[in-house]
Design a protein that fits this description.
Layout (H helix, E strand, L loop, with lengths): L4 H10 L4 H16 L8 H7 L4 H9 L5 E7 L5 E7 L1 H13 L19 H6 L6 E6 L9 H11 L3 H10 L1 E2 L3 H6 L4 H4 L3 H4 L5 E2 L6 H8 L1 H14 L2 E5 L2 E6 L8 H10 L10 E4 L5 E2 L2 E2 L8 H17 L1 H8 L6 H15 L1 H11 L7
Antiparallel strand pairs: 1-2, 3-7, 3-8, 4-5, 6-7, 9-10
Helix pairs in contact: 3-4, 4-8, 7-8, 15-16, 15-17, 17-18
């Protein structure tokens, strides 16, 4: 349902609003409505749309940093990954913002992450069977985007400054001193947040549902610069979150790392120099976890690992096998199913054979 223009005009006249006020308000509303975005005139209007009091909205927006819990999860290759997750009330607000505002912003085809209907396979296919594949990675992707850049993104969409500022505050946070101190009981976890503790401005939080779409929007100008460059030089370009990939059949057609670094820096990001990689034909060319030398496919090691688990599940029983390899975890069947579904999304025929063997497993219940 679009903006009720006629109802607005009638109500504004009943309230004695001037024609200039009505004209300016309609001009503002038409811009947002034309983009399929909800019309929000001010923060009181935003609170109404969120079904909450203006006082509560302002409190959460200005105190957003305290509405997160901090913890860490173990990485598969060792060490820990830091996590900041919003509490339920803030998360519900962010889900509304993501669904009603951010999801309406269209992304070009070369942006393949955090967009409905796009995935790692789509990203990899843009670089299928190319002689040279250059991969670069952006450091601290979400955390590099501060509240000012997020506010600018909402203003770019068409929202007036106070609304844009409020939305930006609801979608960003910084490390809370008290919660950081509480992590002192586990120094190995607290250390993960040391670098973020040094940041004085709120930034995008990796665990917030609004961060992926906002990151894509903020990267818009950088992506357009890379795409224009690709059209001039003749290479292919795509970005999957913080992974940027360039490919061509002639090495001379690829952009220099120094040029990529310059553009990335000008757009407020930093390259993770350790993850820069140039792959040529004849070597294992992988893009977002998929092989692209020839047709796009799942690595053989991944598929063999699935078949190995299926074999032992058939031999010892599904529950007994996963109790040995994932002791204390109750999701072995779901984990294995998920891996087969991933293969199916890329190589349906290979996955069908896996499903046939998977169905033979006795799970003991």
């Amino acid at each position: 349902m679009g903006f009720p223009r006629n109802d607005f005009i009638t109500e504004a006249k009943l309230q004695g609003r001037s024609q200039q006020f009505i004209t300016e308000a309609l001009r503002y509303a038409d811009v947002l409505d034309g983009k399929g975005l909800p019309v929000i005139f001010d923060t009181s209007h935003l609170a109404f749309m969120l079904n909450m009091s203006h006082r509560d909205l302002v409190h959460i927006a200005f105190m957003a940093s305290v509405f997160y819990k901090y913890f860490a999860i173990k990485k598969r290759n060792g060490g820990y990954r830091r996590i900041m997750a919003p509490y339920m009330h803030l998360r519900q607000i962010q889900v509304w913002i993501n669904k009603n505002i951010l999801s309406k912003v269209q992304q070009p085809e070369y942006v393949t992450a955090f967009v409905k209907g796009r995935n790692t396979k789509m990203n990899a296919r843009m670089h299928e069977n190319r002689a040279y594949v250059l991969k670069v990675d952006l450091s601290n992707f979400f955390e590099s985007i501060n509240v000012r850049r997020v506010c600018a993104a909402f203003m770019w969409m068409g929202y007036e400054s106070s609304v844009a500022s409020c939305l930006a505050k609801l979608c960003t946070a910084k490390i809370d001193d008290y919660k950081y101190d509480m992590l002192g009981e586990r120094p190995e976890i607290q250390t993960l947040f040391d670098e973020l503790m040094q940041r004085h401005e709120p930034f995008l939080i990796q665990g917030a549902p609004t961060s992926p779409a906002l990151a894509n929007i903020v990267c818009g100008r950088m992506d357009k610069r890379m795409k224009r460059l690709s059209q001039e030089m003749g290479f292919n370009y795509s970005r999957y979150a913080d992974d940027m990939t360039f490919s061509a059949d002639d090495k001379a057609m690829l952009p220099k790392i120094s040029l990529i670094r310059k553009i990335v820096k000008e757009e407020g990001f930093t390259l993770n120099e350790k993850k820069t990689e140039l792959l040529h034909q004849g070597t294992k060319q992988m893009v977002t976890g998929l092989l692209v030398d020839g047709r796009v496919r799942v690595p053989g090691t991944y598929k063999r690992d699935i078949m190995r688990h299926i074999h032992f599940c058939q031999k010892y029983g599904g529950r007994d096998h996963f109790n040995r390899v994932m002791h204390g975890k109750a999701y072995g069947r779901e984990w294995l199913e998920g891996r087969i579904r991933y293969v199916y999304s890329v190589e349906p025929e290979a996955a069908k054979k896996m499903w046939a063997e998977f169905e033979k497993i006795d799970w003991g219940y």
